[in-house]
């Protein structure tokens, strides 16, 4: 097992690789992570797919209440970052790191034709979700507890986990059309947390109790709804599954106690790893 965040271990392993058709990078959190990888893979990778996060839109100066367009976002100046830190707190750290990685990769593409595609995701819901956001709502409803509706963002997007897999597969097939592109991989629905709770409650056949003083499980990304039209145009065989189709499948999957336990354990492990990384690095900083 190679520690992705240890350049002394990663670099020799990458040097030993021959030509690689596709790299799908879910793990890199910052520009200095992808820098180490690109140095070794720049001449021997056919396609580098970077999985980013829609919270990079925190830094979009043109952000409005409309669906967010997938475009390059400039790194913020220090004054802007301080203002956003007040609004978003520690959640800004991931946004900073992912944006620095995006911009480094796009710069290498522009200068050296590095074959990169960036996929920006909102909150992901589905089996094996490692954030447990849906799980928290479902358990609260099943146990007849109140469900929080307090959030910094009224309207938001979700994406079904299996649609992310399908989008990656189509990105690989359509690679020549996607090089240097940023694609929002999101569902077509624009939701409020109240609407989402209501839909889950209908499937469970329970009456929800809402609490507008308790923090909502969703969204965990406070940027709003995403425009997925470019992804659907370029990835011609990809379109998101309607929520009316996937949500009952997710609820049924989490009706299994073992699946609930699995997600809860993964969530705790992810939180520990994120905390350890932040303490080790002092938190990501813009390059």
Nutshell version of this structure?
By secondary structure, this protein is α/β, with parallel strands linked by helices. The protein contains 11 helices and 8 strands.
What do you see in this structure?
The chain has 287 residues and is of the alpha/beta class. The chain has helices spanning 7-15, 31-41, 78-88, 91-112, 133-142, 161-173, 175-178, 193-204, 229-234, 243-254, 257-281; strands at 23-25, 48-53, 116-121, 123-125, 146-150, 158-160, 182-184, 209-215. The chain has one domain: Rossmann fold (3-Layer(aba) Sandwich). The protein has a 4-stranded parallel β-sheet with strand order 1-2-3-7, sandwiched between helices.
Could you give the topology of this structure?
Elements: H1 7-15, E1 23-25, H2 31-41, E2 48-53, H3 78-88, H4 91-112, E3 116-121, E4 123-125, H5 133-142, E5 146-150, E6 158-160, H6 161-173, H7 175-178, E7 182-184, H8 193-204, E8 209-215, H9 229-234, H10 243-254, H11 257-281
Parallel strand pairs: 1-2, 2-3, 3-7, 4-6, 5-8
Structural category: alpha/beta
- CATH C-level class: Alpha Beta
Biggest sheet: strands side by side, in what order?
A: 1-2-3-7
Order of helices and strands: HEHEHHEEHEEHHEHEHHH
Radius of gyration: 19 Å
Fraction of residues in helix: 40-55%
Record keyword descriptors for this entry.
287 residues; alpha/beta; Rossmann fold; 11 helices; 13% strand; disordered C terminus
């Amino acid at each position: 097992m190679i520690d992705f965040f240890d350049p002394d271990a990663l670099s020799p392993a990458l040097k030993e690789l021959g030509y690689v058709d596709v790299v799908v990078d879910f793990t890199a959190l910052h520009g200095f992570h992808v820098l180490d990888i690109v140095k070794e893979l720049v001449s021997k990778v056919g396609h580098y797919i970077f999985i980013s996060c829609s919270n990079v839109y925190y830094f979009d100066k043109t952000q409005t209440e409309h669906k967010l367009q997938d475009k390059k976002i400039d790194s913020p100046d220090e004054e802007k970052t301080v203002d956003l830190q007040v609004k978003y707190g520690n959640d800004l750290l991931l946004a900073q790191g992912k944006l620095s990685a995006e911009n480094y990769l796009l710069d290498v593409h522009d200068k050296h034709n590095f074959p990169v595609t960036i996929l920006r995701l909102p909150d992901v819901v589905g089996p094996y979700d490692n954030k447990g956001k849906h799980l928290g709502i479902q358990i609260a409803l099943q146990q007849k507890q109140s469900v929080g509706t307090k959030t910094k963002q009224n309207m938001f997007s979700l994406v079904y986990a299996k649609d992310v897999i399908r989008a990656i597969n189509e990105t690989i097939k359509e690679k020549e059309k996607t090089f240097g592109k940023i694609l929002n991989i999101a569902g077509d629905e624009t939701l409020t947390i109240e609407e989402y709770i209501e839909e889950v409650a209908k499937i469970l056949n329970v009456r929800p109790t809402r609490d507008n003083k308790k923090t909502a499980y969703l969204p965990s990304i406070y940027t709003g709804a995403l425009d997925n039209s470019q992804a659907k145009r370029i990835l011609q065989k990809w379109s998101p599954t309607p929520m009316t189709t996937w949500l009952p499948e997710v609820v049924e999957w989490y009706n299994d106690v073992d699946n609930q336990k699995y997600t809860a354990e993964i969530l705790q492990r992810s939180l520990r790893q994120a905390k350890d990384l932040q303490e080790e690095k002092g938190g990501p900083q813009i390059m």
